[in-house]
Write a structure and sequence with these properties.
The structure is a homo-oligomer of 14 chains. Chain A has about 90 residues and is mainly α. In chain A, about 90% of the residues lie in helices and about 0% in strands. Chains A, B, C, D, E, F, G, H, I, J, K, L, M, N: It comes from Thiothrix litoralis.
Chain lengths: ~90, ~90, ~90, ~90, ~90, ~90, ~90, ~90, ~90, ~90, ~90, ~90, ~90, ~90
């Protein structure tokens, strides 16, 4: 059973680190994008539709990186193939 | 019982680190976004509705990263599947 | 009893690290937001109500990250499910 | 008695690290806020009441992060539930 | 069976670290690209089509780096040749 | 007696690290505040009373963080509850 | 068989680290290149063909570094000479 | 006697690290304060008395952090309560 | 055979680290060079031939550093003299 | 005699590290102060006496931090109370 | 034979690290030099010959540092005196 | 004799680290001071005597930090009291 | 023979690290010097002889640091007194 | 002989690290000084003699730090008192 514990611990630590480290980049990148969007809106209010549309496309691209990390984190907690294999073996062995 | 202790320790440490490390990025990103919003408001008070709306959408996107981290942190403390499995096995074994 | 000690130590260290590391981001972000609010106020005193309102909403969003960390830190000290489980088992076992 | 020593050492180290690491962010953030307040005062002396009021609200928000760290640090030294539990057990056991 | 556990742990940790560390660069790079796109749009609204097209090509190039990391991460979780070889050997041996 | 030595060593190291690491932030923050105060004084000598008063309030807020660290450091050296408990037990045991 | 496990683990970890660390530089470099391309387009729309052509040549040069890393990463997972040698020896020995 | 050696070593290392790490912040902060004082003097020679007075108050506040570190460092070398307790016990035991 | 495994592991890890760490510098350097080339083209379209020629010579110089790293990485994987010597000895011994 | 060797080693390493780490801050701070003094002199040659006087007071304050470190370093080499105690005990024991 | 393996491993790791770490500086330095060359060409096209000549001399100086690293790296792989000595001894002994 | 070797090794490593780490600060500080001196000379050639005199006083102050480090380094190599004590004891014992 | 292997390994690793770490500074410094030389040439083509001469003297000074590192690196590989002493002893002993 | 090997290894590693780490500061500082010298020459060609003279004095001061490191490095390789003492003892003992 020791090997199951090790897999569980590795999954827990990795799940947390993945989303926390992987969230730094997107948060900073989105902060920068939003910040310039606001500056641009104040400078050229007439271009608001174009700016807003481009901002949302850009935020979606950046957020996708955070989503990747969140997906990997959730897979490791709730759909971990290595953990499932270990449970299956423990149940059947 | 040793394996339960190890899972508990890993969960405790990871839960804390996830939200604390994962909170640095969103806090800095939101600080930057709010800061430019204020600069833009001072520069172009007439565009206040557009700026405020864009700011709130942006803050929501950035805050979502912190929410991901908080969710993972809460899951690890209160709904940890590895811990539940260990308790179930300890109770039934 | 060794396993209880280990859980206690992990909880103590994580509780402290969570709030101290997690507080760096919000403090810097709020410092930046307040700083630009003051610059904006000096530049456009007439927009004071809008600026102040936006600043408070923004500070609340940023402070929420610090609150998350403080909540996790308090949970680990005073409502730690892993510690409670260990005490219950020690009392009943 | 070894487990009590370990809890004591963890509490001592964490108490010190919490306030020292957690104090870096607020100190820098407040330094930045105060600095811009002074620049703004020099630039727009007529807005002194608004600037001062906003500065104090902001400093209070930032200082709150340092207070959280100080509270956790004091709890770990003088009202540590894990230490109290260990003393109670040592006294009663 | 110990060797399978080690491969599983290495795969879990590497999968998480790959996407989280590898996502920092693309997120920051895209944030910068989107930010300047918005500045450029505000400065020269007439060039919107050229700017938007160049932005999307650039974002695709940058996102490709994150995709590489995500692909490697998924391969390590769901199509890991080393893990498959270990399972095959364990089943046949 | 070994456990007393360990507590003593942890207290010594933590006391020194607390004030030295915790002093970096306040020193830099105060340096920044004083620097802008001087710039502001040179730019607007007539506002000297307001600037000086705001500077002193701000310095007091920032210095408070250093004071927290110094207090924790002194408590750990001269009023350490864990050390006192160990001495009491050694004397009475 | 132990030596095969070690080679597998080293390959897994190195494959992930190579593309994740090696992707930071290209992502940031491309972000910078795209950003200035957009600024230049907004500043001199007439030079769009020259700017776009130079941008694509530059992006190709920078992307080549990420491709190198991805190639090394894929070689380590799917065409690893050390792993093949170990399998051949295990099969024939 | 081993425990005395350990306390001595911890005191020596901590004393040196406290003043050396703790001196970085004040030195940089004072350098910044003095630098802006000189700029301000060159810009507004008539305000020399006010600038000099504010500079000295500020330097005193910043230097106080270095003094705290020096005091803790001296206490650890020449008035270390843990060392004195160990000597007393060694002499009387 | 243990010594062969060690050489293999060292070669795998070094090959990946060489190209990933060694690629950061060239990618950033090329990003900077391309970025200024674009700025210069927008500023002085008439000098396009000279700028493009100088850019390509510069990119070749910078890329050469990445090529060095890639060459060393490939040598370590496919033409490693230490690995060949070990295989020869294992075959002949 | 082992304990004397350990104290000697700790003293040697700490003495060197104290002055080398502790000298970084003062050297950078003084460099900054001298640099602005020169800029100020070039900008306002008439204020040379005031600038020079303020510069020297400031340099003295900053140098004091380096002096603290040098004093602690010399104490640890030539007037180390812990070393003297060990020698006295070795001579008398 | 163990000592030969150790020398081989040290040579492999050092060869890779030398060129990868040593290539960061030259790549960044050359990127900067090329970047300013392009800016200068755009600003003063008439001085192209002087600028180009100076750029090439400078690039040669900077590249020489990367060449040093590549030479040391190649020496360690293909003309390593320590490895040759070990082989000679193993062959003759 | 083991204890003499340890003291020798600690002295060697510390001597080298002291001057190398301790030399970073002064070199950077002097570089900054010299740089501004040259800018000031170009801006105000008439003030050359005052600027040169102030520069030399400042360089002497900064160089003193490097001298401290060099002195400690030389003491540790050629006049090390701990080493002398060990030699004396080895000769007399 | 073990001691010879250790000396060989230390020499290999140190030789590579010396030139790779020691080359970062000169490469960056020369990059900066060349960059400003080009800016200066573009700004003041008439001063080309003076600028070029000063640049070459400066590059020689900076390159000398890289040469020092290369010399130490070559000495450690091809004229290592410690290695020669070990070989002489192994041959004569 | 073991103690001689340890001293040799410590000397080799320290010699290399001393000059490589200690060379970063001077190289960067000289790069900065040379860079501003070139800017100043382009801005004020008439002050060339004063600028050149001051530059050379400054470069000599900065280079002295690198010389200190090189001297310590050479002493450790060719005139190491600890190594000489060990050889003398080995020869005479």
């Amino acid at each position: 059973m020791d090997s199951m514990t090790l897999i569980a611990i590795a999954s827990i630590i990795t799940a947390g680190m993945t989303i926390s480290i992987g969230g730094i980049g997107p948060a900073l990148g989105e902060g920068r994008a939003v910040a310039t969007a606001l500056t641009s809106l104040a400078q050229q209010p007439d271009a608001a539709p174009t700016i807003t549309r481009t901002l949302f496309v850009g935020l979606a691209m950046i957020e996708s990186v955070a989503i990747y990390c969140f997906v990997v984190s959730m897979i490791l907690i709730f759909a971990n193939p290595f953990w499932n294999h270990a449970i299956a073996k423990a149940a059947g062995g």
